[in-house]
Structures
1.
Amino acid sequence: MRPVVVPFFIPHLGCPHRCVFCDQEKIAGAKGMLPGAEEMQAKIAQYRESSPGRGLEAAFYGGTFTALPKPDQQYLLGALQPLLASGSLNAIRLSTRPDAVDADTVAFLKAMGVETVELGVQSMNEEVLRLSGRGHGAADAERAVGLLQEAGFSVGVQLMPGLPGDSAERSLASLDRVLSLNPSFLRIYPTLVISGTGLAGLYRAGSYLPQSLEQAVSLCRRMLLAALRARVPVLRLGLQPTAELEAPGVLLAGPYHPAFGQLVESELFYDLMSAMAADLPKGSSVGFFAPPGRISDLVGQKRRNLARLAEEFGVTVTAVREDATLSRSGIALEWSGGRRSADLLEL
């Protein structure tokens, strides 16, 4: 059972650059202040009470943790040491930049009980990184991943398709280069235009055109499939919806959807469903089987995938049920001629 994540946000703190796309306060809904020791301990206690029997993992998001002043890093991680020692807290994870990781930093994090480090890589294309104001290159990401993996950390990578200068081909090339590093997991966040950012100015000036929702879903579908084939989990597709992000005037443009990840997963499932149904006689009635918890991904939002099968192939889906024998990426189809199974990895 995966641990329950106890989030602490440190927006912008430690960041040596203000990237063109970034406003963490509006994205994450948190102010730029360090959480206090008592605040962290109380929050962890609250999560422990509400999740009995589950492991807990403290997570620092939003800023560049390892670029904070060393006393601040020691304060934040030091406050959690008694909880780690007592077993009240099981693990710590944090986010940082590729160019804020060196051998001394890795040794410090290891000594303080950190197990997972997420790197805001965003792209592996040098021009995209330059135009986005990242202040680091692809080689920094490769070096940071290597240092962390050698020390035994779980290493996650965040990518942002659709940045200035990006294209579908560049995003896919970035993904391929990241996958070659064998990260523990990925997060993929299509670029959004947030008010008050440098990107908002470029957008208003007509110098930046964001992806449409359709374009972003199509690209992320290809990225998700590549990650599946590489056996690298994608923990999230699209930003987490927050009241701050959805407040009037905050999100100016870009492929935002509160269930973006499901849109992408549903597209992949439809590709597989249509391949399975393509040779069935028109007018066929069929049933589909999905792994536990994945019926909504299979049928699509507003049951769109079922309607598309009827429109494109003349196939009527009369039932959709769960089948615990299927893998998470597998589905099965049943009709008068029998039953067939397939897996997303076959696409």
2.
Amino acid sequence: MRQLTYVGGNKVEWWDVPPPRLHDDRDALVQPLAVTRCDLDLAIVHGRSGLAGPFALGHETAGRIVDIGGAVRNFAPGDLVIVPFQISCGACDRCRRGHTNACTAVPFRSSYGLKPVCGVEYGGGLSDLIRVPFADHMLVHQPEGHPLSQTAGLADGATDGFSAVARWLQQRPGADVLVIGGFAHSLAMFAVQAAVARGAGRVVYLDDHAPRLAKAKSLGADIIEAPAGLMIEPPGLFPIVIDAAATDASILLAFRSTEPNGICQRMYGDFAETTPVPLRHMYGVGITLKVSRVNVRAELPDCVAHVAAGHYHPEHVITRRVRFEDAHEAIGDPTIRVAFVRDGIA
């Protein structure tokens, strides 16, 4: 079968690889029909992630089940499903606590399309077929009447960005939200959407990039154009601040923009081993910093419900749609969000 492979540097190629097979009676095989590009994918294919190839690409996947193991009860061949990018069993202590990003039944950080972070090649969404272990737990039914390109991103980024804001607004209804945009192009937009959908008092988006500022404005945010590098004084104090730029400058700006006893969430860690953090300021002001990989499978049902109800529109963040077969040419496009869709799929 064909698999889009990151070879190294800025080189990607379609490789012919053996198709996956059912290894366990709890497995399912899924044909990816719509895949969206994660912000990390863009860094990978431009050689900026530090992840060494070769490995399969694509981890935000919606598709059709083509085969199931004998123990699978909740799904059948032909079902349309969303495939969370993190592998989890649903039964271990961590999974039962909702920490599906750290399942103990598989190697730590097991994920599609990210072999270097876990050491196991699970394949990628940009391929003809993927194997899904623990299918009854892992898979989520596609909401009826919604296009697969709308929900594919819920496998990672669209759930990450939404849940990052929704959890804090649940604790602080009506609070103002500041989103600092940058490296995490689409995560920042999902955070804006979440803040608007979940009733934030004011949603402010700050960035030094005109296309992202325009997109954020179209999604309902007030915008602040910053100079290059985000070298700007805080635009005010906010109860909730989302740092989606992932730079030293952005985290310092985020802390200075967080009100006393406020929340600051960093959407990525860092590609460097260490990051300067002003603990004295954080202590004095009383800032809670949250930084963590998303627990996609645990958070996904709530996000799917908001999509099904019409409250959340991940498809509005997509800025380019291309044929699945042209993924090798388009995956490096610097646009905010790319969807790779098979012919005949919405």
